[in-house]
């Protein structure tokens, strides 16, 4: 752990966000969060998702059909685990967020399947 976020994040947040880990489904902070608010990058604070685009994908991870701004979430081809997937990263700091799939609901048809450990939820007041 030797980057600028090492002292800011918990060991689990660091493992997931900065080392590309994955947390277990159905055993993470936001998979079933139904509160109104916004989700930010846990490392740098960049605004990523709004609760208005969150939906229950049945996967056990928080899922969204679109980021607040397309430019806030970057994409990287992920060939790990013998499969080609699209990794989602924070465009500002490069933290691993999860993956995006093309099996989501309208209007985008996308499913941004994110790790709670990579997100910081801020409820709206």
Secondary-structure blueprint of this entry?
Layout (H helix, E strand, L loop, with lengths): L10 H8 L18 E5 L5 E4 L3 E2 L7 E2 L8 E6 L6 E6 L5 E6 L9 E4 L4 E5 L2
Antiparallel strand pairs: 1-2, 1-9, 3-4, 4-8, 5-6, 6-7, 7-8
Characterise this structure:
The chain is mainly β. The chain has 1 helix and 9 strands, in the order H-E-E-E-E-E-E-E-E-E. It has a 6-stranded antiparallel β-sheet with strand order 3-4-8-7-6-5. Strands 2-1-9 form a 3-stranded antiparallel β-sheet, with no helix packed on it. Helices cover 6% and strands 32% of the residues. The model has no long low-confidence stretch (mean pLDDT 95). The N and C termini lie far apart (35 Å).
């Amino acid at each position: 752990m030797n980057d600028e976020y090492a002292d800011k994040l918990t060991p689990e947040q660091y493992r997931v966000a900065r080392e590309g880990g994955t947390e277990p489904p159905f055993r993470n902070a936001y998979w079933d969060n139904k509160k109104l608010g916004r989700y930010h990058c846990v490392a740098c604070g960049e605004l990523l998702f709004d609760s208005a685009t969150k939906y229950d994908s049945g996967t056990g991870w928080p899922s969204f059909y679109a980021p607040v701004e397309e430019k806030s979430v970057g994409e990287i081809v992920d060939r790990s685990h013998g499969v080609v997937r699209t990794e989602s990263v924070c465009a500002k700091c490069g933290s691993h967020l999860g993956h995006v799939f093309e099996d989501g609901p309208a209007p985008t048809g996308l499913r941004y399947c994110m790790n709670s450990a990579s997100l910081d939820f801020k409820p709206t007041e």
